[in-house]
Specification:
Blueprint lengths: L2 H7 L6 E4 L3 E5 L9 E5 L11 H21 L4 E5 L10 E6 L16 H17 L1
Antiparallel strand pairs: 1-2, 2-3, 3-5, 4-5
Helix pairs in contact: 2-3
């Protein structure tokens, strides 16, 4: 069972920003920027391009709605998108608030944010997601 499956099952807590019956979006616990969100399907599929077409399309549309909430609440030029797929064998999309292309680099130092700050960021994005 992957860490994402454990998060979906509620066995591992997360800073949830959005959820539907099929998808979950939560803050990355080792973000490269404040507001770095992971968007996942609740079904465990290792490789994003192995998702059924309908699921892939709906995941992208869910991610778009989450990105709009990030853009509305986190100061940034844009919300960058990355799909790497090597670190956790569960399809996922990184949404990262950016000011320039270098902000998306996973070689950048990871931030260590206090739990209170993480909760505040999650609530802010979640509130904007609910409104959209």
């Amino acid at each position: 069972m992957t860490v994402f499956e454990k998060i979906v099952a509620g066995d591992i807590p997360c800073y949830k920003v959005a959820e539907t019956d099929k998808f979950l979006a939560f803050l990355d616990v080792s973000p490269v920027k404040e507001g770095h969100v992971l968007v996942i399907p609740k079904v465990a599929v290792d490789y994003i391009f192995d998702l059924e077409d309908d699921m892939y399309s709906r995941l992208a549309l869910f991610a778009k709605k989450v990105a709009r909430a990030i853009d509305a609440t986190i100061p940034c030029e844009r919300v960058g998108v990355a799909v790497v797929g090597l670190e956790v064998p569960h399809a996922h999309i990184h949404l990262i608030p950016i000011h320039d292309a270098g902000d998306v680099s996973f070689a950048n130092p990871k931030l260590k944010l206090a739990p209170e700050r993480m909760a505040e960021i999650a609530k802010t994005i979640s509130d904007a997601f609910q409104v959209s």
